[in-house]
Each structure stands twice: as C-alpha cells, then as structure tokens.
Amino acid sequence: MVKQKYSEIAKQAKTVNASSCCGATSSCGEVYNIMSEEYSGMEGYDSNADLGLGCGLPTQFALIKKGDTVIDLGSGAGNDCFVARAETGESGKVIGIDMTPAMIEKARENAEKLNYNNVEFRLGDIEKMPVTANTADVIVSNCVLNLVPDKAAAFCEMNRVLKPGGHFSISDIVLIGTLPPKILQTAEMYAGCISGAIQKDEYLKLIEVNGFKNVKIQKEKIITVPDEILSQYLSKEEIVLYKQTNTGIFSITVYAEKAGTCTPGGGCC
User: Fold this and answer.
1) Quick one: DSSP state of residue 42?
2) Which pTM does this prediction carry?
3) Do the Cβ atoms of 139 and 170 come closer than 8 Å?
4) Were 191 and a residue from 5, 15, 16, 78 both cysteine, which residue would form a disulfide, CB within 3.0 to 4.6 Å?
5) pLDDT digits over 2-37, tens only?
6) 2-173+183-222+251-256: what fold?
C-alpha cells in the first residue's frame, strides 16, 4: 500500500503533494504543509527533487564531512541526497535507497540533469539494504522509518552498513500517548506518516538496543494535524475527545553513533 501511494506521489506535482498530510493522504482542499521544513536556503537544494514529504532537515544536523560516504534511507526524488552531496563534495559518495521504482526513476533523472556522477540510487528495502557492511560514514533519513513495519530490523541494518565510528541523523515522527483506533486503522494515515509512528521512548530504546551510543535528540517539534484532516476519520465528538487525551505527535531529529569496534555480545548486530 505504501509503495502504491508513493508511486502516485512520484508522478504528481509537488503542489498536489503539499495539499495532503505528508503528501500521501486524501486532499483536504487547502494546502496543509504540516510536516515539511524549508530547504530552499540550503546548498545543493534542487526544487525538482523536493516533493515536500519530509518532517525535518536531517542533513543540516548530520555533521557530513568532505569525502564522506552518505546513505539516505527513503531517498524519494533525491532531495536529501543532493543536499548531502553539497556537504561531502565531489570526493565523497551519496547512495539513496528507496523501495518505490517510480521514486528511483525520478531521482535518477534528477541526478542526470544535474550531472552528478557520485550520487546513485538503489532499489531496496530499509530492513534489508542493498549495501555491503561498513560502507557509510553517515546515514540520513527524513520521515521514513515510521513507514517501516519492522523498525528494529531497520536500525539493525543501519548499524551493519555504517562504518565503525560512523553515525546517523534521522528525522522521523514519534508519539507520546495513544492515537484513536480509527486513525491507527486507516491506511491513508499510515502512508501519511502518522499511524505507523511508535512511542518516542520505544523509538529511542530501539536505537540503543541495536548497538548505538551517544543517542541524542537534535531537534524536536510538535505536529498539529488540522481538524479538516481529522474530520475525514473522526466525528466532531471524537475529535474533541482525542484532543482531551493530550496525545502528542512529534517530529524529532535524532543523532546516534555506531561503536568504534564490535565485540561479541556487544549488541552491534
């Protein structure tokens, strides 16, 4: 279902994507760009590659150095990859991974137009990346892991493909509190980056148990879902009750490092 939704997004205009929750739900009749942040001032930004699907600016916090190899998980049309390339330079390498063939095709077209020879895009799942172990200096990802069914497997794979001492900076959606069942059971809200999100504490714990250290939140902001979106799934009374629960939907940008060495039993996959 997610693959189908994001195939549709890859083939439509950015303005259409922006008129829905995270670009993937039914149109609200208004432009609600409720999660994405402004990239236009960042070096390497290309508007053709920005589909307005993110919830943060992970590359801004990723501490990318010249010559680094960077992997972008859920690379979409290539926006974060191109920003990362501006940081790593021509001596580095950027690999984008996405499970949607239409997104891979769009990203490759964008890279070719920009004449970028050190940016490549690979079709694959985050839970089983088409990348050899100890490849990346840095991993970035923008509003994608909430779409991954097995998040523990995703973090384990991130540990595998990072070099010893490498790190990641990922922006994602997490929860504090419980969403209404009607939201949790809605396919569009899953594809819209809401109902696939897990509890914030659980998210941070998954990072630690999969062998990462120095875990810290680099940025956090609350996401307010407009009533016009909620009303597609909840009655007026249910919306009132939902707001009374004080459930919080948050965008967080998280940093963590892979241990410098891996010892048996150390939790590093």
Assistant:
1) S
2) 0.87
3) yes
4) 5
5) 777 778 777 776 565 554 444 444 444 332 356 777
6) Rossmann fold (3.40.50)
